[in-house]
Amino acid sequence: MPAPTPAPIVRRQNDEDLLTVLRAGESAHARARRLASARVVVSASLAAGAVLAVVVPALQTALTTAGFLWALVYAVGAGSWTESEFRTAALLQETFDTRLYDIPWNETLAGNAPSADEISRLARRYKGPEERLRDYYEIRELPRPLDLLSCILQNLAWGARIRRRYAAAVQAGVIGWIVTGVAVGVATRMTLASLLTTWFIPSLGLLLLGADIVRAQRETAAAREHARQVILREMREHAHSGLPPGRVPDLLVLARQAQDVLLRTRLAQARVPNWFFRRFLDSDRADFAAAMDEVGSWLPRA
Description:
The protein is mostly helical. The protein is built from 12 helices and no strands. It has one domain. Pfam families: S_4TM (PF18159).
């Protein structure tokens, strides 16, 4: 007896069991973001101390020592504390996606799936609005597997664009800080040694953090953009060839491969702050809606 056809994704994503997984993922994300923000605050505070040290030279030794120690802590593994939280959040998102898409869990890449008790415990911590979780993927009702490929396409497209944008902003900030430091050194006639100890060593943690962010965001964007192009090409070919059932198994394999790209980049902690993501949310959503209209236009007319 053939397996029953699952309900359309556009409706099934609001099932209570899937919303519970989303609540758990959101609470794990929130904790991970708080820990990551604390790391940024420490790095930025020490960098700001470099400016203060120019005005109050007596603080130079203390700030230089603190900056050097923080750079060591960062280099040795300041992110290890947040790594487990980011991993938990990534695996919960993977749980939501694989259940929603009805595709296999990749144990080789992801390890064990989050347990039911862990999902329940984290879901109870969610304090945000329920409306934010409903209709998580903004897609129209499409035949399988175009529906799940459209969800994956949404993650790939938004992720690549926002990460390139964020990497450019952070890189500009890092370059600006370096140029400012050199300008301050020239203006105050500092020696090279004094410039290093007064300006750059206290801000070394921030510079290392900025370099890591730029590298990770660009690597993530490149991987997601490549996967997006492959998905778009295969979806177009499938639609233009009349949605032949024989291609569905191959497209489901492709969906799992693209989901692996998303999972690997999520596990790499290459995340964008919520405020930055929301800054461009409306324009990005409009662009994606246009992309979904294009996908709909490929479908054969009834």
